[in-house]
Amino acid sequence: MSDASVSSLSPVAGPATATDYVRLMKPRVMSLVVFTALVGLVAAPTDMNPVMAAIAVLSVALGSGAAGALNMWYDADIDAVMARTVTRPVPAGLVPPSEALAFGLIMSVVSVMLMLLAANLLAAALLAFSIFFYAVIYTMWLKRSTAENIVIGGAAGAFPPVIGWAAASGSTPLEAWLLFGLIFLWTPPHFWALSLWTSKEYERAGVPMLPVTHGARETRRRILIYTLICTPFALLPVAFGLGGWVYLVTAVIAGAAFTAGAVRVFVSRAGDADGAADMGRARQLFAVSIIYLFVLFAAILAEHTLPIHVAVGGAS
Amino acid sequence: MSEARDTGERVTLTPEQAAARKRRGQWMALALFTFVILIFVITMTKIGADVVVRDL
Fold first, then answer.
1. Packing angle of the helix pair A121-132, A50-74 (nearest 10 deg)
2. CB within 8 Å: B17 and A52
3. Is the pLDDT of residue A69 over 60?
4. What is the share, in percent, of chain B residues with pLDDT greater than 90?
5. Within an 8 Å CB–CB cutoff, is residue B32 touching chain A?
6. Which of A53, A98, A203, A223 has the most CB atoms around it within 10 Å of its CB?
7. pLDDT, tens digit, 9 for 90 and up, residues B27-54
């Protein structure tokens, strides 16, 4: 071997650390995905081998991470011009784009294969479709082409409880799709609250988020509309026996808080040129929306794992 | 078949880069090992009972 060596790797091409790859998988998003998938799996009226259940949940986590990596690979140009995302591994030069792509593809295959082996074909197919939906339909198509990106794209994040339910039971009854609908309707007000204070960055990146294309006032109006649809919809699991009294009380109280937050944003000037003083309301709504979804799913989880499920209008 | 041409260029890693590469290699090995274990566990869980309880 010649020792006429001599260049050193540029920081851009330098070996990434394990932490960079973990960040590539969007761990915070993954935590909510895993939690909702677990709730779907537990709520299904079928006992699943605990080992297989754990591997099925792991598969959903890996699938979520794969979708996140593919998203970061494709959106590196957008992420590079937004303060909120500029430190992500790809735009920061910590992980080369080609490695992010390979990582996402390999993880996709591994997650779907594990789900197929541990659960069934339906759950594996749903997992594969949700990864495809997020990486291709949302990231590559909708995000850069329509202000409704988050409305339609929200379906990708709504699949996990259905996948969990399918993994446990091999089917996806109406109750599973109620959980899907809950996340689907929750996503727009949750994400639009965030977009109210990041709209300038989205505008600079050329992403047609609602505040960029329709203005902050229309965004605040739609936040309220979707919240007013989402909170009553969240009561439907009670009508179908999926949720009992604990869930009902939780949904009513949390729904009132979520609605109050949306009303406070609606009557504010958050997102307007002179609305800096009201931006705190949008941040509060964003935080409340996360708590809202978490406590609703936690209530379902508690009712299906603890002896506290008392059906509304009937015996337990 | 064409042979790769040796241009004489080599990459020299800094100590930090070498350490990072080693750590990454260890994580990849751990990930592969975990994957193998998972496949083994799935297989044993699925066939375990059938192996123990079968007609002889």
1. 20
2. no
3. yes
4. 25
5. no
6. A223
7. 889 999 999 999 999 999 888 766 666 5
The number of CA neighbours under 13 Å toward the Cβ of A271 is 29
Tell me how far apart the alpha carbons of residues A38 and A303 are, in angstroms, rounded to a whole number. Answer: 13
Give B11's DSSP letter: B
Residue of A153, A158, A166 whose CA lies nearest to A124: A166
- ipTM, two decimals, is 0.73
- CATH 1.10.357.140 domain range(s) in chain A: 17-172
Where in chain A is CATH 1.20.120.1780? 173-316
Q: Which fold has domain A173-316?
A: Four Helix Bundle (Hemerythrin (Met), subunit A) (1.20.120)
Q: Are A9 and B10 within 8 A, CB to CB?
A: no
CA distance A309 to A242: 9
Backbone dihedral region of A312: left (phi > 0), alpha (psi from -120 to 50 degrees) or beta? beta
A251 residue type, one letter: A
User: Per the structure block, which two tokens stand in for B16?
Assistant: 């930090």
Q: What is the DSSP letter of B4?
A: P
User: From the CA of A140, how many Å to the nearest CA of chain B?
Assistant: 29
**Hey, what CATH class is A17-172 in?**
mainly alpha
- Residues in B closer than 8 angstroms to A3, CB to CB, are 10
Taking only the tens place, the pLDDT of each residue in A242-271 is 999 999 999 999 999 999 999 999 999 998
- Nearest chain B residue to A8 by CA distance is B12
Residues β-bridged to residue B11: A7
SS3 B7: coil
Name every residue whose Cβ is closer than 8 Å to that of residue A44 and which is 6 or more positions away in sequence: A164, A165, A168, A169, A176
pLDDT at position A91 is: 93
